[in-house]
Design a protein that fits this description.
With 513 residues, the protein is of the alpha+beta class. It is built from 18 helices and 23 strands. The strands form seven sheets. Strands 3-9-10-16-13-12-11 form a seven-stranded mixed sheet. A hairpin with a 6-residue loop joins strand 4 and strand 5. The two termini are 40 Å apart. The structure holds glycyl-adenosine-5'-phosphate (GAP). Glycyl-adenosine-5'-phosphate binds next to strand 10, strand 13, strand 16 and helix 13.
Length: 513
């Protein structure tokens, strides 16, 4: 199965089992907007809670807030979003389709890379064991030609982006013969900047002064509450403010399912530190956030850091934690050292002093900030991409299993009477009515037990307990573990303990060890 096929299967699976639906589907959907269904909303809540507990509950010096989506419009002027939160756009005059100029060039570069990989693949097959990859890449004339071209375009592209040189972006597209995927022509408009913020009107005012924006990130809600939290929470530096919530971006290239959406959710934390100590904390958070991902049991090889070459003007260090999605390694989380940019800007635009008073030195200063920012929907997709498995079993049958980390699984325990008679359903409900206070449970009595196990595998339920005749004799049930499919008989009174063992945050979230 190719990665593209795998991705299509994951998308189909999430719809079939009630994880994710296209928004407004009965009206043919709304591009790049999705709804979370009965299981998806549970999984999303569990990811959010796992993040929140690790950041807020387990850090004495990090508190959480929930700021409004609508904010004073000047905030977005101060933050730079009104002037600089742009994508470079280009239209094809024949197809009337709009593209991101940078994405067209990146895709072109990826095609050149593909050609190099194909040559290497062919040679690997041709030469077998004696194949020397390094030597081949540095000497094969065709590969050398592709590589030179790749490097030349990449360097020119980075320079054009850094200098905001829209003309040169267009020149690259034309000179490289990049065509519109729909019309197949090079009939392009000029490249121009397009602001990604959605705007709307507040109250009855229709002039410009009434224009407000849907927040494109949750971070600014934290910065503008810095003083409130610092004072009322009696916080001492270093301290952090976390929040989760919706953000909105009018993405032009909104593809790849829930990877790039127009309405999405972020989980962000701003950590306020003493100027000069930011690199120490940047490295701390880089490490901590990596450990958080690994605590879920996802293999380390699925992640990599990508340090930014082009650092935003307000930052002095930035890295992405990338995850290997079915469409390649892509940004999952950003960790940024934002200096004192945001607080200083809000100080300037609001006229309010946004400073911290250091009791030890008797000095006031604008704190520096380390930010960790992860998209909840992207994390959802990362979990699913890792979890989705098609397995051939020893008896020749097949199963689809979602190996969702148990702590995140939407349903923790399926409660199944072996048959729909002999008081087994009643007994099953009796057991579930106790367990449901601690765990999300699902009762199922339809079809054979084998088919019911498969259904639970397909939604990632880590435990199935089955009530049978013996249950009435000795108060035991069988408990089946999703990944190994092993079943053991246990006392009903032991179920909670067994399941809790896998869910206990003390075991999985002890990240500072
Ligand atoms: N406050 C910093 C900030 O917003 P960002 O890199 O633009 O930084 C942070 O976004 C994270 O939000 C990304 O790493 C990604 O996980 C998520 N994200 C950004 N745009 C998104 C979109 N259109 N759809 C889904 N998730 C998105």
């Amino acid at each position: 199965m190719t990665q593209e096929e795998l991705f299509k299967k994951i998308i189909a699976h999430t719809k079939e089992y009630g994880f994710i639906f296209p928004s407004s589907e009965i009206y043919d959907g709304l591009a790049a907007v999705y709804d979370y269904g009965q299981l998806g909303s549970l999984l999303k809540n569990n990811i959010r809670e796992y993040w929140w507990k690790s950041m807020v509950q387990l850090h004495e010096n990090i508190i959480g807030i929930d700021s409004a989506i609508f904010m004073h419009p000047t905030i977005w002027k101060a933050s730079g979003h009104v002037d600089a939160f742009n994508d470079p756009l280009i239209d094809n005059k024949d197809s009337k389709k709009r593209y991101r100029a940078d994405v067209l060039i990146e895709e072109h570069l990826a095609k050149i890379e593909d050609k190099i990989n194909k040559e290497v693949e062919k040679a690997t097959k041709r030469f077998g064991e004696i194949f020397n990859r390094e030597m081949f890449i540095s000497t094969n004339p065709r590969v050398v030609e592709y590589r030179n071209k790749f490097n030349a375009v990449k360097t020119r592209f980075s320079k054009a982006l850094n200098n905001n040189d829209l003309n040169d972006l267009k020149n690259i597209i034309e000179e490289e013969g990049i065509v519109c995927p729909v019309s197949g022509t090079h009939n392009w408009t000029d490249v121009r900047q397009f602001n990604l913020m959605f705007s709307t009107q507040m109250g009855s005012i229709t002039e410009d002064s009434g224009t407000i924006y849907l927040r494109p990130e949750t971070a600014q809600g934290i910065f503008v509450n810095f003083l409130n939290v610092y004072k009322t929470g009696r916080m001492k530096i270093p301290f952090g403010i976390a929040q989760t919530g919706k953000a909105f971006r009018n993405e032009i290239v909104a593809r790849q399912f829930i990877f790039r959406m127009r309405e999405f959710e972020q989980m962000e934390m701003q950590y306020f530190v003493k100027p000069g100590e930011e690199m120490k904390w940047f490295n701390y958070w880089k490490e901590f956030r990596k450990k958080w991902h690994l605590s879920l049991g996802i293999p380390e090889a699925k992640f990599r850091f990508h340090d930014h070459e082009k650092i935003a003007h307000y930052a002095n260090a930035a890295t992405d934690i990338e995850f290997e999605f079915p469409f390649g390694f892509k940004e999952l989380e950003g960790i940024h050292s934002r200096t004192d940019f945001d607080l200083s800007q809000h100080q300037k635009f609001s006229g309010k002093k946004l400073q911290y008073f250091d009791n030890e030195t008797n000095e006031s200063y604008v704190p520096y900030v380390i930010e960790t920012s992860i998209g909840l929907d992207r994390m959802f997709l990362a979990v699913l991409s890792f979890a989705y498995n098609e397995e051939k079993l020893e008896d020749g049958s097949e199963r689809i299993v979602l190996r969702i980390p148990p702590v995140l699984a939407p349903i923790k325990i399926a409660v199944l009477p072996l048959v729909k008679r002999d008081n087994m359903p009643e007994k099953a409900y009796e057991i579930m009515n106790v367990l449901k206070f601690d765990f999300m449970c699902q009762y199922d009595e339809k079809d054979t037990i084998g088919r019911r196990y498969r259904r639970q595998d397909a939604i990632g339920t880590p435990y199935c307990i089955t009530i049978d005749q013996q249950t009435f004799e000795d108060n035991t049930v069988t408990i089946r573990e999703r990944d190994t499919m092993k079943q053991v008989r246990v006392l009903i009174s032991k179920i909670s303990e067994i399941v809790n063992e896998k869910l206990n945050l003390k075991n999985i979230l002890n990240l500072n060890k």
